[in-house]
Amino acid sequence: MIDPPEPVLTGVPGPPEAMTPARLPVPAGPGRLLVLAVVFVCAACGLVYELELVALATYLVGDSVTQASIVLSVMVFAMGVGALLAKRLRCRAAVGFGAVEAGLALVGGSSAMALYACFAWFGQSRSALVGFSLAIGILIGAEVPLLMTLIQRVRRQDAGGAVADLFAADYVGALVGGLAFPFLLLPLFGQLTGALLTGGVNAVAGGVLVLWLFRDDLSARARWTLLGANALVLVLLAAGVLLAAPFERAARQAVYGSSARVAVQTGIQEVVMTGGTGDGAGAGRGRKGLGGPLALYLDGRLRVSAETEYRYHEALVHPAMAAGPHRRVLVLGGGDGLAVREILRHRQVRSVTVVELDPGVLRLARRDPGLSRLNHRSLSDPRVRVVTADAFEWLRQQGLRGRGRRQAPFDVIVSDLPDPGIAASTKLYSQEFYGLATRLLAPDGRLVVHAGPPVERARLYWTVESTVRSVGLATVPYRLAGRPASFYGGPDRAASPVASVDAEVPAAAPSAGPDRYWGFVLAARHRPRLGLAPDAPPPAGLTCAELQAGRRGEAHDRMSGLPASTLMHPRYLD
């Protein structure tokens, strides 16, 4: 006997829940709007997590271009993995989405605190950063397939229309999250509390959608499990908000030591100052008042140490002042007032213009007892005019002014800026930047540039020199021994204490060595003379013999044929 053929099933059956219309407590129209609203909120939270990881990676590890590329590429890859894994959850989309949102809220909300803890107590954060990027990306990637299933169960429509609605809400939410991060969360709450609050919003949005709108899809056990999980996540995030301030103080103490006495987020960077609170502390070498010698950190990188800063600033300022007239001086950067202190030692100086980006640093240089004592209150001198602006934009604006409104040319321009290898500083070491500066130089004026470590990062240093030459200036490269061991691109402390972070000025004499140098480039339209001015008080830590030895050393180690760095092709990150 031949069995009759079985009937052919048309269509591809999906998971039972995915094909069944949901029983909702509201009509389909408002229910669908609620799903799209949750898509909007989740997209905003997801982008905040991404931006928070990029910002934190830049601060903890350095090199914003590389860190942003790593975080975003890992997250996009992980989102694809998450989308594939979510296929197994579509049979119970409501439960799956509730679990994903609870996990994402906890992981994303606590990521900033966890990464900062790794940095402060374990000395490295790169591997944790990649791990959080991967975990957050997987959870974000799982959202869209589950939300697509849920929105189709509210009211079935063609796939193209559903995808268009879902992605429209997703993209608008991403826009809001992207704007909220720099303009709302960071200024009002900071990275730690901002991430924790974002996690709380994420958990509430997911909980409302699943536990209220799709409550009939849940068994009693699933309902109570999700309710307990969301409550636990919210309690943990709330505890994190309450403990954020003491946690940050403890982490800062682990990084900078117990003498950290100033810690402010200026909107431009984090500024931390240690030591310099005793009588004479911070006044210079050999004076160890309460808390030890003053040290100033910007975004975790040591910038000033009262122990040895005088050598750096004397080598930066005095050769340029000695090579010709120096009545009008322009300082690009130098908001700590220390380069200005050295400039004002020259009796011929009539005016000094300081262009500094961060008003917080200027405020400390004027008001902090230790730092103002160290800079001899130079920024309060009547000959000094301070401009709060980006140095590149300020130079550009001067060039755009008409002849009658343009600045009179400067005899000396001092470029006292962070190392060029830090991605945010590359435009301040570009051919365009030096071209703009040259337009403000007097015919016999000089430009001096802090150009980074000439031995440890020789290619970087000689690229700066080549870029300065590319705008038509003759250069005299020179160096001065005493730069500390460099942890370039820092401040990831995987191998070194914070005192040996790549710095403009060494934290203390023991961390410096005779084979580590600060590098400078002195430039003018005609080859300038390298020496010291006879009309200035003798420098405390610099001699003509040292300068000439530094010039001969650089002449011997010269790297030729390097291309100039430009805005469109920065060479310092190669």
From TrEMBL:
<comment type="function">
    <text>Catalyzes the irreversible transfer of a propylamine group from the amino donor S-adenosylmethioninamine (decarboxy-AdoMet) to putrescine (1,4-diaminobutane) to yield spermidine.</text>
</comment>
<feature type="binding site">
    <location>
        <position position="313"/>
    </location>
    <ligand>
        <name>spermidine</name>
    </ligand>
</feature>
<feature type="binding site">
    <location>
        <position position="336"/>
    </location>
    <ligand>
        <name>spermidine</name>
    </ligand>
</feature>
<feature type="binding site">
    <location>
        <position position="269"/>
    </location>
    <ligand>
        <name>S-methyl-5'-thioadenosine</name>
    </ligand>
</feature>
<dbReference type="InterPro" id="IPR030373">
    <property type="entry name" value="PABS_CS"/>
</dbReference>
<feature type="transmembrane region" description="Helical">
    <location>
        <begin position="226"/>
        <end position="247"/>
    </location>
</feature>
<feature type="transmembrane region" description="Helical">
    <location>
        <begin position="33"/>
        <end position="61"/>
    </location>
</feature>
<comment type="subunit">
    <text>Homodimer or homotetramer.</text>
</comment>
<keyword id="KW-0745">Spermidine biosynthesis</keyword>
<feature type="transmembrane region" description="Helical">
    <location>
        <begin position="67"/>
        <end position="86"/>
    </location>
</feature>
<protein>
    <recommendedName>
        <fullName>Polyamine aminopropyltransferase</fullName>
        <ecNumber>2.5.1.16</ecNumber>
    </recommendedName>
</protein>
<feature type="active site" description="Proton acceptor">
    <location>
        <position position="416"/>
    </location>
</feature>
<dbReference type="InterPro" id="IPR036259">
    <property type="entry name" value="MFS_trans_sf"/>
</dbReference>
<dbReference type="InterPro" id="IPR029063">
    <property type="entry name" value="SAM-dependent_MTases_sf"/>
</dbReference>
<feature type="domain" description="PABS">
    <location>
        <begin position="244"/>
        <end position="500"/>
    </location>
</feature>
<keyword id="KW-0472">Membrane</keyword>
<dbReference type="InterPro" id="IPR001045">
    <property type="entry name" value="Spermi_synthase"/>
</dbReference>
<keyword id="KW-0812">Transmembrane</keyword>
<feature type="binding site">
    <location>
        <position position="356"/>
    </location>
    <ligand>
        <name>S-methyl-5'-thioadenosine</name>
    </ligand>
</feature>
<feature type="transmembrane region" description="Helical">
    <location>
        <begin position="163"/>
        <end position="186"/>
    </location>
</feature>
<keyword id="KW-1003">Cell membrane</keyword>
<dbReference type="Pfam" id="PF01564">
    <property type="entry name" value="Spermine_synth"/>
</dbReference>
<feature type="transmembrane region" description="Helical">
    <location>
        <begin position="128"/>
        <end position="151"/>
    </location>
</feature>
<dbReference type="GO" id="GO:0004766">
    <property type="term" value="F:spermidine synthase activity"/>
</dbReference>
<comment type="pathway">
    <text>Amine and polyamine biosynthesis; spermidine biosynthesis; spermidine from putrescine: step 1/1.</text>
</comment>
<feature type="binding site">
    <location>
        <begin position="390"/>
        <end position="391"/>
    </location>
    <ligand>
        <name>S-methyl-5'-thioadenosine</name>
    </ligand>
</feature>
<keyword id="KW-1133">Transmembrane helix</keyword>
<keyword id="KW-0620">Polyamine biosynthesis</keyword>
<keyword id="KW-0808">Transferase</keyword>
<dbReference type="InterPro" id="IPR030374">
    <property type="entry name" value="PABS"/>
</dbReference>
<comment type="similarity">
    <text>Belongs to the spermidine/spermine synthase family.</text>
</comment>
<feature type="transmembrane region" description="Helical">
    <location>
        <begin position="192"/>
        <end position="214"/>
    </location>
</feature>
<feature type="transmembrane region" description="Helical">
    <location>
        <begin position="98"/>
        <end position="122"/>
    </location>
</feature>
